[in-house]
Write a structure and sequence with these properties.
It is built from no helices and 32 strands. The N and C termini lie far apart (about 110 Å).
Length: about 350
């Protein structure tokens, strides 16, 4: 038999009893009193002006919080509540007040954790591992470096500042990457992925949706219905588009010296309101690229010169510019491979307006 220290039956050390007290001094007529630390029904004594009250006859205490007097207390009375709380680790199913665990906490069954508004969660280490195959539903995720070995489905925003490696990603909300993002699988985008042009590079097998920023990858395939979101200069070894290729045309402001900003697109339209004396082709790609664009010109009877300002030349087949009939539409095609120093031009003229 274990050492009972001289006790028959339960020894005092088998269970600690916690006594909670609270005193109330009503300032008027009052019947109900809320016991701040809570109680277990049947384990509470109530005293009014020093006299012990009888449960059911003089008071009720059934919900673990409120003590209700049968006859109300008045100004000058003193009500004291004494609750007895047996502490037994084997039978804890709730705690009315704060609950602190000094060591490890192991939960064998299902754990439901509800956090109130403004609640913060902190832990001692920088890694947080979840074993098994848990399902976690979250809104926004913000982190320095996040690694997902399986598919990731985000209904909210995904904001990652560091290097990110993902397999398959399904994003129905907007996502922003300040650092590089490498996708080993496909990227399914609802609202869109935004990359900071200064540092963000998207590398993936295929994109299903809109991507804004720099894109790189071997044989990257863009299959979304709307691709105007790919706006920054990127590098694709091969691009395959399953569907129509569409591009918005850019309207040139009419003047005697129109400017064509080549960073805006590849198809430009100009309706002349005056004779053109010179053109400006601004922001051509560098001399390591070849670049072509089209100017759709409605001349309305105005003359058109083909000199460039402030520099550059336009070269025509047989050194002969086309003759443009009045009130017709003309397509002028330009190509440069030396950074805009020389443009080789050809024309398809005299469409009926």
């Amino acid at each position: 038999m274990a050492d009972r220290s001289g006790y028959i039956g339960r020894a005092p050390g088998d269970s600690s009893v916690i006594i909670a007290r609270q005193t109330f001094e009503p300032t008027g007529i009052q019947t109900d009193f809320t016991f701040a630390s809570g109680y277990t029904p049947g384990y509470i004594d109530v005293y009014l002006n020093g006299s012990r009250l009888i449960v059911a006859s003089d008071y009720t205490a059934t919900d673990g919080s409120v003590v209700g007097l049968t006859t109300n207390a008045i100004n000058g009375d003193v009500l004291e509540c004494v609750a007895y709380k047996a502490f037994n680790l084997g039978s804890i199913d709730s705690a009315a007040g704060n609950f602190t665990v000094g060591g490890d906490l192991t939960v064998n069954g299902t754990s439901n954790l509800t956090l109130g508004a403004g609640t913060s969660v902190s832990y001692a280490t920088t890694s947080f591992g979840l074993e098994g195959t848990p399902n976690i539903a979250v809104g926004d995720i913000t982190g320095v470096a996040v690694t997902f070995s399986g598919a990731a489905d985000f209904n909210g925003a995904l904001d990652v500042d560091g290097h990110t490696e993902l397999d398959d990603v399904n994003v129905s909300g907007a996502s922003t990457f300040a650092g590089a993002a490498d996708f080993n699988g496909n990227v399914y985008v609802g609202t869109g992925i935004t990359m900071y042009a200064s540092s963000g590079i998207v590398s993936a097998t295929a994109f299903y949706g809109d991507v804004t920023g720099d894109v790189s990858g071997s044989a990257a395939t863009v299959t979304g219905a709307v691709q105007s979101g790919i706006t920054s200069t990127g590098t694709l070894t091969t691009i395959s588009i399953d569907g129509p290729y569409k591009q918005k045309h850019v309207t040139i402001s009419p003047s005697a010296t129109p400017e064509v900003d080549l960073s805006l697109g590849n198809y430009f339209t100009l309706t002349q309101n005056a004779a053109v004396t010179s053109w400006t082709f601004s922001n051509p790609p560098g001399n390591t690229f070849s670049f072509s664009f089209v100017v759709e010109l409605e001349n309305g009877g105005h003359a058109t010169a083909w000199s460039l300002s402030p520099s550059g030349t336009v070269e025509w087949p047989a050194a002969t510019p086309p003759t443009l009939a009045a009130s017709k539409t003309h397509l002028i095609i330009f190509t440069t491979d030396d950074g805009g120093n020389k443009y080789r031009a050809s024309s398809i003229v005299d469409y009926t307006t």
